[in-house]
Write a structure and sequence with these properties.
The complex is a heterotrimer of chains A (755), B (158) and C (291).
Chain A lengths: L19 H5 L15 E7 L5 E7 L1 H5 L3 E6 L10 E2 L6 E2 H8 L4 E2 L5 E7 L2 H10 L1 E6 L6 H4 L26 E9 L2 H7 L2 E9 L11 E6 L5 E5 L4 H12 L6 E5 L15 H11 L3 E4 L2 H7 L6 E9 L5 E13 L6 H8 L8 E9 L13 H19 L3 H8 L18 H10 L1 H4 L6 E10 L4 E9 L5 E5 L7 H13 L6 E5 L16 H28 L6 E4 L2 E4 L10 E2 H6 L1 H4 L4 E8 L5 E12 L4 E12 L6 H20 L30 E6 L21 H13 L10 H8 L4
Parallel strand pairs in A: 1-14, 12-13, 16-17, 20-21, 27-28
Antiparallel strand pairs in A: 1-7, 2-6, 2-8, 3-7, 4-5, 9-17, 10-15, 11-12, 11-14, 15-16, 18-26, 19-20, 19-25, 22-23, 23-24, 26-27
Helix pairs in contact in A: 3-7, 7-8, 10-11, 11-20, 12-13, 15-16, 19-20
Chain B lengths: L3 E7 L2 E7 L5 H8 L18 E4 L2 E4 L12 E3 L12 H8 L9 H14 L5 H7 L11 H14 L3
Helix pairs in contact in B: 2-5
Chain C lengths: L4 E3 L4 H10 L4 E4 L5 H6 L7 E4 L9 E3 L5 E4 L4 H5 L2 H6 L1 H8 L4 H4 L4 H7 L6 H8 L2 E6 L2 E6 L4 E3 L2 E2 L6 E7 L6 E8 L10 E9 L5 E9 L6 E2 L1 H7 L6 H14 L10 H24 L3
Parallel strand pairs in C: 1-3, 2-3
Antiparallel strand pairs in C: 4-5, 5-10, 6-7, 6-10, 8-9, 11-12, 12-13, 13-14
The chains are: A alpha+beta (755), B alpha+beta (158), C alpha+beta (291).
Chain lengths: 755, 158, 291
Amino acid sequence: MASEAKEFKWVGKRTIRPDGIGKVTGRDRFGADFALPGMLVGKVVRSPHAHARIKSINVDKALALPGVKAVVTAADFPVLPSEAQFVGEGPVNMWDLSRNCLARDKVLYDGHAVAAVAAVSSDLADQAVALIEVSYEVLPHVIDVDEAMRPDAPILHEDMFTDGVNPKPTKPSNVAKRVEFIKGKVEDGFEKADVIVERSFTTKPVHQGYIEPHACVVNCGEDGQATVWSSSQGQFMVRAYCAKILGWDISEIRVTPSEIGGGFGGKTLVYLEPVALALSKKSGRPVKMVMTRAEVFRGSGPTSGASMTIKIGATKDGRITAGQALLKYQAGAFGGSPIGPGCMCSFAPYDLENVEVIGYDVVVNRPRVAAYRAPGAPIAHFGVESVVDEIAKKLNIDPIEIRERNAAREGTQTHFGPRFPIIGFVETLKAAKRHPHWKAPLGENQGRGFATGFWFNIGGESSATVNINEDGTAVVATGNPDIGGSRASMAIMAAEVLGIDVDRVRPIVADTSSVGYCFLTGGSRVTFATGMAVVEAGRKTVKELCNRAAKIWEVEPDQVVWEDGFARPASSNVGDFEPLSLAAIAAKSARTGGPIGASTSLNAQGAGAGFAAHICDLEVDKETGKVTVLRYTAVQDVGRAIHPGYVEGQIQGGAAQGIGWALNEEYIYDDKGRLQNPGFLDYRVPVASDLPMIDTVIVEVPNPRHPYGVRGVGEVPICPPMAAVANAIENATGCRMTALPMSPPVLLAAIDGEG
Amino acid sequence: MTKYHVNTSINGEPTEFLCEPQETLLDVLRDTLGLTGSKEGCASGDCGACSVIIDGRLVCSCLVLGVEAEGHEIGTIEGLAQGAHLHPLQQKFLEEAALQCGICTPGFLVAAKALLDANPNPTETETRYWLAGNLCRCTGYDKIIRAVMDVAAEMRGA
Amino acid sequence: MNALQYEAPNTVKKAVALLAKANGKAKVLAGGTDLLVQLRAKMVSPDLIVDVKKIPQLRKITVGRDGRIRVGAAVSGAELGEHARVSEAYPGVVEAVELIGSTQIQGRATAIGNLCNASPAADSVPALIAAGAVCTVVGPNGERQVPAEKIGVSPGRTSLAPGEFVVDFVLPARKPRSADAYLRMIPRTEMDIAIVGAGVNLSLDGDGVITEARVALGAVAPTVLLVEEAGRALVGGKLDDAALQRLDAAARAACRPIDDKRGTITYRTKVAGVLARRAAAIAYERARSKR
């Protein structure tokens, strides 16, 4: 099914993205750029306590304020059964999500939404928020994952009995579930080992850090039909989650995706939309809700902080004989951390006989976790890749060499079930080793670190429609918000199949009523799965175009072939017909059977796993603990780069986020469990002067299950950087850092031996 | 609240508006004048997505009151292109894939224009430090910096 | 809730009158890079904003015949940095002011605003204090001079009486072979509040012996500290290793920092010594290269 590596017309070209002009002129509209006549402004009342029982909520004074048109609390949402539903990126418990949107009975983190108001102006909405009286009974709280697992820890949910433990516990705890992945016997493996390294690590919660706060504009009509304009990673997800939380039919809601200013997984849930819809329904007017930056940090979903222990054994020749990991992830207020994927990715780059990974999903009093780029994997890779580095050092083996000696390849049986099909890890390692960066000289106080990473990438349900316009241009409609330039890739793939100029293909992201169902934008799936749907719809269209040519020529359809945008007779025997361009056929479409186009819905299987290898050089100021990243090279197998520029961009962006996670990003809480740094001043994402150029090397080991060989690219690049940075710091200072972030005070303490 | 009547010039066009004193220039641009190209990322001057140019100076419009615009020249992203003619920075950003989600792009373009107006020959370090007030979470800055320096070279005729 | 008013007087006298009438419920607006953030966060709720940017003398930088440099309170960081004479005479003051925030912040923020916001970590303040800057304060009772180190009294509070505001600061006429420097420790390369700041101002004689030294430390106490012991540690000799060690020790001894989300006591204290040494070295080199 995969095309041969021939010269493509458009695949692999750095075309100008079709939505580009709207972005560089500021004309394109993001979530907060939309307005409706008569629109109200909605604002949220948020808990100032990390853990408290809600004794009462009094909204009278707020309602009495002139200009306030509606107030909602959890009482305005139906009670739902507590069960996981597979509607978004992973199974989500709708009752949990409902209670996250508006707290019921208890508030579970500083920033937890308790009520919301809609008023005629932003100012009045603020005043109304201040007039809502909530009476709390403050409870002890817990945020650290190890503390939350202690038997005497404050309990968040009295009905939480750990899943995955046999026999099921009779006492509630904060452990939502336990998972394990076992292959072989690690005890045997450690017996055989010549060297064993065991280390414990901790990481802090970090936020996806999208520059665009959550925003939506909704309108409930008197007929019960609602429209939603929202910045999200999936309009179908928004539609379904809102319907479920509100108890409405899915068909009563139509969601139009705005342009989205970053998501990275953080916008695969709803926060504002169901609340806004409830306000709109009550007030009978459109409602706009936009989070402030502080609300984004306090009220949306950073990824887990974690505590883990990694133990690896190897023989003198560098072969790893056993890999063992104990991972404990914060889930936040409700169960659902990415502990599963974290466990699975941990040792995935390696072909190991004996693996044991045990994971715990632990609720704590901080915001409910949302997905963040390869959810769970960067944390696990930080631990494992740090320990592999130590083993390499102990055995005096080159860090890339030791990976090569243990590399997963085609046929490797993973520790989490599947056997790898064709993958490109070995090729990626080779490319890293060949890169001049690996052998470049280092100066004083400088160090070099290497680390690898893996992400499964997913496929899933996608739909696409290709319609040929009367003038031979084409519209390609899909249902996936474009978070990284995917529209450019859709246009490229459609143009390649149709054989026309890419500028004559207009890709759009359609609303939920105008295109078939698409699973959300995430899991590095869009170019793969939605691209597959586009290709299939394109091929169906080409078939129809050939049918029309056959009609025009009065021959059989199988006597027509499509080449380079033209219908041609299959051979000279068919007849002496001038090739018909797509435009020519389109012009005659009314007479040959009507409008030309095709739709496809599919559930894409065969997503290709991605592997990355990163090299990081940095310099440490040993008197202050400050780290300067000097040089960074990111190598990754992408299968096939549909648009190399945007593939490089994904790699660079993921690497930058990983570097921030490694060095300075963290959620800081006070002793009352209140977030101390809900802003970009003290939540320190990398700025332009913090980073060097990030060199990318695109390796292409095509995925045979995709028409063009595509593997997902977006998530893998965030997996290696934390260990790459930690390994470089060890190389520069001799200090093995086991706690993230490796900020200057922490690093200086380690250098001075106080750690 | 009393509204103040402000006379200013935006992208070369004489413009007047009414605003309350606590409204920022960003609020006015977006909500009153419909110029939604400048974005609100933080409302505290930490992200640069709201960048505009006042009398030739690069500033965050979230840290300027609407009333302060009286008598000044404001340049926003909407004024960067000349009709259908993109500014070289806009063109280069597209050619070099220097944007992904695009939310930070208007801020970067305005900031980069201010840079090249002040310093037509910036080094990579100077470019990075000038643009340190513009946050991007998607690109890792690499392609943005390259695009700005390439435009600088082009505009110098290098 | 009282309706907020905005005024933009064009003389100091009018500004003083407006502030007096507002009876303590007015805020002065120059760059606005602190005030607007505080307004938005509802940390302050004034009835009146008095914008001083339309007062011509507050926008000026003047160098007197006696060599004293007077910088108006509404001069932005960007404008200060573009002034050749100030940059040449007090590179430490200029680099400190220019470290405040981003390029965008520099387009608006003022040194006096930074000083009067009275954050212990304010970047301009250690340099202003080390340079011996003196502020001109005006109010209902007339005009008075206040050294920069006497402006901040505790985090967020100044010694200014109700109705008073700063119209300019004056830097002393530069002696020969004198220079200053400012360094700060931040986790990133830009955009952070200083974890520690150190401003050093030196004058040398013809042999490179330090004749005058002022050292100020930021973010290690409730206000920016003028560390006289540290200055004394340098005077009378060249900037040799012994002097640097004495400086380091004196700087550390003066620290009374806190543990907070930006740094720990241990860290701040240690780095205060490191930065004092490094800033002194830079100031010394700059002074030596002058005639």
